[in-house]
Amino acid sequence: MKIIERLSEAIRKTGNYNKDAQVAPACILWPDKDRQWEPLIPRLLMELPELLVYGDYDPSK
User: Fold this and answer.
1) Is residue 55 part of a domain?
2) What domain range includes position 43?
3) C-alpha distances in Å from residue 17, one per residue of 20, 22, 26, 30
4) How confident is the model over 15-60, as pLDDT tens digits?
5) 3-state DSSP helix/strand/coil percent for the chain, to nearest 5?
6) Number of structural domains the chain divides into
């Protein structure tokens, strides 16, 4: 398995929760103050089309 696949799987798993004890998460936040992960965003978007990235307005997206 490729690293990008493991990372995508780990991100998706963060949405898992105990239905008997918790409410489903509405979103998962990934703060990256130093923007260390920013170069991976285009590749992550290919693996995770549901990923929402805030930034400058781009009507084509």
Assistant:
1) no
2) 3-47
3) 9, 7, 11, 17
4) 899 999 999 888 888 888 899 988 999 999 999 998 888 888 878 8
5) 35, 0, 65
6) 1
